[in-house]
Design goal:
InterPro entries: ATP-grasp, BC-like_N, Biotin_BS, Biotin_carboxylase_complex, Biotin_carboxylation_dom, Biotin_COase_C, Biotin_lipoyl, CPAse_ATP-bd. Its cofactor is biotin. Pfam families: Biotin_carb_C, Biotin_carb_N, Biotin_lipoyl, BT_MCC_alpha, CPSase_L_D2. There is one protein chain. The protein contains 17 helices and 41 strands. It has about 675 residues and is of the alpha+beta class. The chain has five domains: about 5-105, 3-Layer(aba) Sandwich (Rossmann fold), CATH 3.40.50.20; about 130-200, Dna Ligase, domain 1 (2-Layer Sandwich), CATH 3.30.1490; about 205-455, ATP-grasp fold, B domain (D-amino Acid Aminotransferase, Chain A, domain 1, 2-Layer Sandwich); about 465-580, Glycoprotein, Type 4 Pilin, CATH 3.30.700.30; about 595-665, OB fold (Dihydrolipoamide Acetyltransferase, E2P), CATH 2.40.50. The chain has an eight-stranded antiparallel sheet. An eight-stranded antiparallel barrel has the order 25-26-27-28-29-30-31-32. Helix 4 (about 90-95) runs antiparallel to helix 5 and helix 12 (about 405-415) packs antiparallel against helix 13 (about 430-435). The longest helix is centred in the last third of the chain and has 19 residues, at about 465-485. The structure holds adenosine-5'-diphosphate (2 copies) and magnesium ion (MG). Magnesium ion binds near residues 275 and 292.
Length: about 675
């Protein structure tokens, strides 16, 4: 076994690898960028080496520097994590050339699976079922059009070099094909430097089911069952679970065999994932087709660890050091059910626009044990840390395990309720909403689940004004009691009449001004009148700092954090933000101030959909920006005329930079 490894990554995956290495008494070397000088992954490792600037191309993608760091520290092997250099065959080869073990498959396997079109040609030969489509070399637009017409509509155009849910276009009818092809090729060349595409039948109501495979250097290969990753937004996974609901033993064996055949066709070594798109037929039958192979550890590997009780990073290290696979196929078993939720810095209500900021509050649920635990948290951040625009928007992963799917689901919801983040927008409440949908609860899974449940998932307010206001007031009163700053008989904003004293609180809640009246009765009891609800308010502080509150017929345990002039209220049924009006911070709307259209976050201008002089209608797309691996469309805030474009496509912009000027049409 290795004595020392270098982890060529950051964030949660670097911390994850370091945890297993530590358990196995292997020393670790971290690498880091400017933005990560104090990051958790640096602290999690025994040594660290500085790489350069914050942008990935100046640090985590500089492989000569990483190899030098490995040499200088005496590391014997390099773990690439996922993203960055993990699927770069040149880097894998450079490691070998430098006498280092790349903890992953051989460069030839990465290359063979790197392009979706080429890998499909290989899979066809290996007898792995493919989605009906075209994956040839000839990229003549007329030929591609004929192929799409032959396959039928809706069809999907995919960038062969694509990944991360990018470079895909669904085409509804033949007449739309040419335009979609041009736009897909443009995105492909911009994002991946290669405009080759393939065409697939667009499977309706599909499920994404993938198989975890593992190969060793002795020619053995096993599969560690499946994960269902159907719940996606923008073709990116948000919830993943294992086993896949409704999976039969026969289909599992068939898919497992196909995945192993795929891996063997490229002499695969180490951890890999074969992704299948699954067509659901009436009567419960399912057809599966090869989609792509990811030649690395997957973000969602912990659900497989939870149901098998194994540590896949340990397996990676054993296999990379030449040991045979620790278990044979027949020794692998599924225990219970596991679900993972990806907690991302983003705003679900604004088309999942990535968010940045400081983690002013970051409280996690109580974790239990490590592998196959009931609740596991994988993260690489801590309270006070920054979510910067340079890297992925994933903050943490919550992984739960239960005897049954229902148990795991209930546990995940409870764990999400205990995840308190303030300072950065997140999808935590959105995820709770998804778990609560009928589709998810009944395991009626497919990639359109979020779209289908739109009505109940967006712009939700789980708490409501009365409870939010009661929580904020309770927090204020308890703080006053503790510090004796404002009592019921203080004259400042109270008044007395007929033995009661009242205080009026003004709030901003969901963009509207609201008032609440608190009355102190002569026996010391309180009543609150807010949002059409009126009744006694009883509160107390629990030992851990939580507030216990009884109001409006309910008894609640809540956490209230006062940050940025607002109370951030977390209760069992959800979380919300309510601001006492006198302390309201006037945060400007960064997207549209008058005729200026500014960048909502730092990033790259991908394209403009308009030019100076164009007349535009409210809501019309004007520009596309890319930040944190997501594209975001900037739309016109009103009808008007474009005056001037301030940048050229491809340019980097800072947050708040003016992207273009427009003159609104007078109403
Ligand atoms: P997966 O199926 O594993 O999600 P993708 O093809 O979507 O595979 O890409 C890998 C994922 O890992 C993406 O979500 C990407 O943004 C994310 N990612 C890459 N590197 C890191 C990292 N260091 N920390 C957190 N997430 C990362
Ligand atoms: P990436 O490399 O970006 O992960 P994939 O080929 O794995 O690209 O596809 C990503 C997602 O797009 C899938 O998980 C699925 O939701 C959807 N998708 C891909 N191919 C098809 C298809 N032929 N029909 C319907 N949906 C598809
Ligand atoms: Mg994929």
């Amino acid at each position: 076994m290795f004595k020392k490894i270098l982890i060529a990554n950051r964030g949660e995956i670097a911390c994850r690898v370091a945890a297993t290495a530590r358990r196995m008494a292997i020393r670790t070397v971290a690498v880091y960028s400017d933005a990560d000088a104090n990051a958790n992954h640096v602290r999690a490792c025994d040594e660290s080496v500085y790489l350069g600037g914050s942008a990935p191309k100046d640090s985590y993608l500089r492989w000569e520097k990483i190899l030098e760091a490995a040499k200088a520290t005496g590391a014997e092997a390099v773990h690439p994590g996922y993203g960055f250099l993990s699927e770069n065959e040149e880097f894998a080869q450079a490691c070998a050339d430098a006498g280092l073990v790349f903890i992953g498959p051989p460069p030839s396997a990465i290359k063979a699976m790197g392009l979706k079109a080429e890998s499909k040609q290989l899979m066809e030969k290996a007898g792995v079922p493919l989605v009906p489509g075209y994956h040839g070399h000839d990229q003549d637009p007329a030929l591609l059009q004929r192929e799409a017409d032959r396959i039928g509509y809706p069809a999907l155009i995919k960038a062969s070099a694509g990944g991360g849910g990018k470079g895909m276009r669904v085409v509804e009818k033949s007449a739309d094909f040419a335009a979609a092809l041009a736009s897909c090729q443009r995105e492909a060349i911009n994002s991946f430097g290669d405009d080759a595409v393939l065409i697939e039948k667009y499977v309706q109501r599909p499920r994404h089911i993938e198989i975890q495979v593992f190969g060793d250097t002795h020619g053995d290969c096993v599969y560690l069952f499946e994960r269902d990753c159907s719940v996606q937004r923008r073709h990116q996974k948000v919830l993943e679970e294992a086993p896949a609901p409704g999976m039969t033993e026969a289909m599992r064996a068939e898919m497992g065999a196909a995945a192993v055949a795929a891996a063997k066709a490229v002499n695969y070594v180490g951890a890999g994932t074969v992704e299948f798109i699954v067509e659901q037929r009436d009567g419960g039958a399912m057809n599966f087709f090869f989609m792509e192979m990811n030649t690395r550890l997957q973000v969602e590997h912990p659900v497989t660890e939870a149901i098998t009780g194994l540590d896949l990073v340990e397996w990676q290290l054993r296999v990379a050091s030449g040991e045979p696979l620790p278990l044979k196929q027949g020794e692998l078993k599924i225990h219970g059910h596991a679900i993972e939720a990806r907690i991302c810095a983003e705003n679900p209500d604004n088309n999942f626009l990535p968010a940045t900021g400081t983690l002013q509050v970051y409280r996690k649920p109580q974790a239990t044990a490590f592998e196959r635990s009931a609740v596991r948290i994988d993260d690489g951040v801590r309270e006070g840390g920054e979510i910067s625009p340079f890297y992925d928007s994933m903050i943490a992963k919550l992984i739960v395990h239960g005897a049954t799917r229902d148990e795991a689901l209930a546990r995940l919801d409870a764990a999400l309720a205990q995840t308190h983040i303030v300072g950065v927008q997140t999808n935590v409440q959105f995820l709770r909403g998804v778990l609560a949908t009928e589709s998810f609860a009944k395991a009626n899974l497919d990639t359109a689940l979020i779209e289908r449940e739109r009505a109940v998932l967006f712009d939700r307010e789980p708490l409501g004004l009365p409870l939010a206001a009661a929580a904020s007031i309770a927090r204020t009163l308890l703080d006053e009691r503790a510090t004796n700053t404002q009592g019921p008989f203080s004259q400042r904003d109270g008044w007395r009449s007929l033995g009661t004293t009242a205080r009026i609180f003004a709030f901003e809640f969901r963009g509207e001004t609201q008032t609440a009246t608190l009355r102190y009765l002569h026996d010391g009891a309180l009543t609150l009148d807010v949002g059409g609800v009126s009744g006694p308010l009883v509160m107390g502080r629990l030992p851990g700092g939580q507030i216990e509150l009884a109001f409006n017929g309910g008894r609640h345990r809540i956490d209230v954090y006062e940050r940025q002039g607002a109370a951030h209220v977390f209760a069992d049924q959800g979380a919300t933000r309510i601001a006492a009006i006198d302390r309201l911070a006037h945060a400007g709307d960064s997207q549209a101030e008058g005729g200026r259209l500014t960048a909502p976050m730092p990033g790259k201008v991908v394209s403009f959909a308009v030019k100076a002089g164009d007349k535009v209608a409210k809501g019309q797309p004007l520009a596309v920006m890319e930040a944190m691996k997501m594209e975001h469309t900037i739309a016109a805030p009103a009808d008007g005329t474009v005056d001037e474009l301030m940048f050229a496509p491809g340019e980097q912009v800072t947050e708040g930079a003016e992207l273009l000027r427009m003159v609104a049409t007078a109403a």
